[in-house]
Amino acid sequence: MGRVGLTTERLTQAGAELADELGFDQVTVSELARRFDVKVASLYSHLKNGQDLKTRIALLALEELADRAAEALAGRAGKDALTAFANVYRDYAREHPGRYAAAQFRLDPEAAAASAGGRHAQMTRAILRGYDLAEPDQTHAVRLLGSVFHGYVSLELAGGFSHSAPDSEESWSRTLDALDALLRNWPAP
């Protein structure tokens, strides 16, 4: 019944594809075993458990997102960088909804420290240097951007903007304009 060639990497990639197809919450070792037509027990030589599988998918998603963001940010600054960065998250969520959900998965401190999450924060801070924000305002702005990007994308993916005008594309553009204006005119404490 088992297939030769199963590796942790191959199972992680298949789990990520499964997340995009069924939803991250539906990813289980049992479902993955069905996909490979193997017994669940045969996967435990590559994965510790379902938590390990989900952690690996989350790490993969964070890495993919960070790679895309780094490429999009190269040579950009100011609003151009902000827009490119935001669009990476939105496009990734649209293309890979399960992986995007995985990127929000709560990691244990050790896994988080080893993840590409730090790259995301560094890139966000690099964008904010163009807005001349000092600490603690820079941290507040990092949190604001993450909240707006994630909130907008999550609502859009759930169909929250599909029943009214204007089009969500127009609202997205206006949201990025508003964020740029806010960052250029950050309020004093």
UniProtKB/TrEMBL annotation:
Transcription regulation is among the record's keywords: yes
Annotated HTH tetR-type domain residues: 5-65
InterPro entries per UniProt: HTH_TetR, MT1864/Rv1816-like_C
DNA-binding region: 28-47
Keywords assigned by UniProt, alphabetized: DNA-binding, Transcription, Transcription regulation
Coiled-coil residues: none
Protein name (database record): WHG domain-containing protein
Lineage, broadest ranks: Bacteria, Bacillati, Actinomycetota, Actinomycetes, Kitasatosporales
